[in-house]
Give the backbone structure.
Amino acid sequence: MKILSVIILIFTITFCPAQSIERFSIDNGGASVSNGSIQLLYTIGEVNVQEIDAGSVSVSEGFITSGFKILVDPKVFLQGPLINAATPDIMEDDLRINDQLPTTSPYEDNATCNTTVFDITGNNAIVDWVWLELRDANDNTKIINARSALLQRDGDVVDVDGVSNITMQAPPTGYYVTVKHRNHLGVMSAQTIMLNESSATDADFTDNAFNTFGTNAQVLLASGSTALWAGDTNNDGSVQFSGGNSDVNILKDFILNHPSNPLGFLTVAINGYFNQDVNMDGIAKFSGTSNDSNAIKDIILNHPGNFLNIPTFTINTQVPEN
Ligand SMILES: [Ca+2]
Ligand SMILES: [Ca+2]
Ligand SMILES: [Ca+2]
C-alpha cells in the first residue's frame, strides 16, 4: 500500500502541471491590423513570423524588423550619355545597344536583373545601373538603406524589372535621398523627403528647381535640366583633369596597359563596360573623335566655379560622407 502511494506521488509530480493555461487566456490579448482584403491577427504569446503583401501594402507580424517597404520615384540624368545625345534630356543607351550592360549590378549589393529587361527600347530603355541611398534625417552621413536600381533613358530610376517604382527597406518617414553612379559624382537632396508605403514620392534631380545638398552639386545642361557630373573614372568622389591621380591619367593608364593593346598605343580604343568610358558610348578612348579625355577637360573647364577656366580645377562630390 505504501509502495502504491509512492507510485501515485511520482506520477502526479511527473505528469500533472502545477497550473494550466487555458487557450482563451493566450488569445485574450493582442490586436489585428487590416488593409483592404488582408488582415493580420496577433496575440500575446503567439510566435508567428509572417508578412502579407497586397499591392504596395505590406503587413508584418512577429519578429520581422525590416518589414517596412517604402516607395520612392527618383529621376536623374547622367552627364556622360547626354554629351552627344541626339535628343535633349534623353540619354543615349549605347551600352545597352552594344550588349555591354551587365545583368549584375556593379555596386555592392550585386543585384541582378533578367536579360530581357535590356530588350526594352525607346525612352524607357535602360542606360545603366545606379545606386540609391536613404539617409537619416538627423545625420545625413548615416545610410539607413541602400540598393542598386536601373536608370531609363528619360531619367526614371526603376526596379530591376526595368519598369516598377523603387522599394526601399525602411520605416515611413523623412530621408535625405542620394543617387550615385560608378563614374559620375553622386548627389543628395538638400532637404529630407517624406516617403511612405502607399505611393512613390518624387525626387526629381533633373529639375534645376529641386534643391540639392552643397554647391553646384550637378551640371546645368543647355536644356535647363540638371545632371550628375561625369568623369570620375576612379570613383574617388572628384573629377580631375590634371595631377598624378587625375581621372585622365586613370584613362591613359587603362588604355596603355590593356591586354588588347600589347604595343601600348595611346590611340587604341577599348570597347566594353568601363568606368574610363566617360561619355558611356561603350568605348574607352583617349584620343580621336568623341574621346573620353576631352570630355573630362570640357567638364572641368566649363564648371561654373572654375572662373579662370584652369585645367587644374577639381570638381568634388557634394554628398557628405563620414
Ligand atoms: Ca520613363
Ligand atoms: Ca576621380
Ligand atoms: Ca567613351
